[in-house]
Design goal:
Elements lengths: L2 E6 L24 H7 L8 E6 L10 H17 L4 E5 L5 H11 L6 E4 L12 H12 L9 E5 L2 E4 L4 E2 L8 E2 L7 E3 L5 E3 L23 E6 L7 H9 L2 E8 L7 H12 L3 E6 L18 E2 L5 H11 L6 H10 L1
Parallel strand pairs: 1-2, 1-3, 3-4, 4-5, 11-12, 12-13, 13-14
Antiparallel strand pairs: 5-6, 6-9, 7-8, 9-10
Helix pairs in contact: 3-7, 5-6
């Protein structure tokens, strides 16, 4: 049987509610490995699993320091301790961001699977039990090797690059947009993959071999009708940020006032990445914006474009070099 490490970071999957109908006011981080094994004895038929509590922070508190600690932990598990795969339990609010960071920075082709839940462990019809079992099943699958970091909820397997949370409480919250899921775990208890990620990740990523302990600051600016650009002006004046990602309207567009402010930002040495608030579709270079020296974010969601830009700035100081990375990743 495969040797799988489950790294527990809390979240709804580990939560205790006031009663079985408490689906919103529960307390996370109440249940750990021994509780999971007792409630889900089927785990022992899937893999040789070791549980370890790690960090135990709310997903709303997760920051880049936690990402770096987790990257080091996962790398040690896979490269030094010789686990065949890793499962990470995580709160769903920022799960996709932590997963994408590891997708770009872990130097291993072994399965790394993130899992969470939309209903607490104690809830009536909780998804926590089956989600965890299915995540372990995927991590123990030979077919999951070299597919980058995966996210498993609701019997659906997604790539960390595309997946995002799309609903506050529904079980089918995690979707991969128009590009779709990588595969499924069906009632035959087998893992079925139907496509392979084509963008660079894990052992194919140049960021997987970098050593780092901090990042320059990158902010996300959300565009809307009548946006004044004043927030961008404040970012420039503060001198605290080296990058800005715009969650633009439509195909990554911004208001005239924002455009003027963003031009000042690039002139002051701040990198600007254009992405879209739409959720699907590519943001690509367009003639009206050509003179402004913005980076096009392709189809990365703003929160993921931010992560890629943070990593790019560890190595590159030129817009063209960073644009090349966004084209490949």
């Amino acid at each position: 049987m495969k040797k799988i490490k489950v790294i527990e970071m809390g979240g709804t999957i580990s939560a205790h509610g006031k009663n079985r109908l408490d689906l919103k006011d529960y307390q996370s981080g109440e249940y750990t490995g021994s509780d999971f094994l007792k409630a889900i004895p089927e785990i022992e038929n899937v893999a040789n699993v070791s549980f370890e509590s790690f960090l135990q922070v709310s997903s709303t508190e997760v920051n880049a320091d936690h990402w770096i600690q987790l990257r080091n932990k996962v790398t040690k598990c896979l490269l030094e301790e010789n686990f065949d795969g890793v499962v990470i339990t995580h709160g769903t609010n920022t799960l996709e961001e932590t997963a994408y960071f590891l997708h770009l920075t872990v130097p291993s082709d072994k399965p790394i699977v993130f899992v969470g839940a939309q209903r607490p462990f104690t809830a009536l019809s909780s998804d926590a039990h089956l989600n965890l079992l299915q995540a372990i099943r995927v991590a123990a699958s030979d077919e999951a090797i070299n597919r980058g970091v995966l996210v498993v909820l609701n019997d659906e397997i997604s790539s960390a690059r595309e997946v995002t949370k799309t609903n506050t409480y529904r079980l089918e919250a995690f979707q991969s947009g128009q590009v779709g899921y990588l595969g499924f775990i069906d009632p035959d208890q087998k893992v079925h993959f139907y496509r392979q990620p084509t963008k660079k990740h894990t052992i194919h990523s140049e960021f997987a071999t970098l050593q780092f302990d901090k990042f320059d600051n990158v902010e996300i600016i959300y565009s809307y009708a009548g946006a004044t650009g004043q927030l961008i002006e404040h970012l420039i004046e503060g001198g605290y940020y080296r990058g800005i990602v715009t969650a633009g309207t439509g195909a990554g567009l911004v208001s005239p006032s924002e455009m003027n402010a963003l031009q000042k930002a690039t002139e002051s040495g701040i990198f600007v990445v254009r992405s879209s608030r739409v959720g699907n579709g590519r943001v690509m270079p367009i003639d009206p914006y050509e003179k402004y020296h913005f980076i096009s974010g392709d189809n990365l969601l703003p929160q993921k474009a931010r992560i890629l830009l943070m990593l790019c700035m560890l190595k590159y100081n030129k817009m063209d070099d960073i644009q090349a990375i966004f084209n490949e990743y």
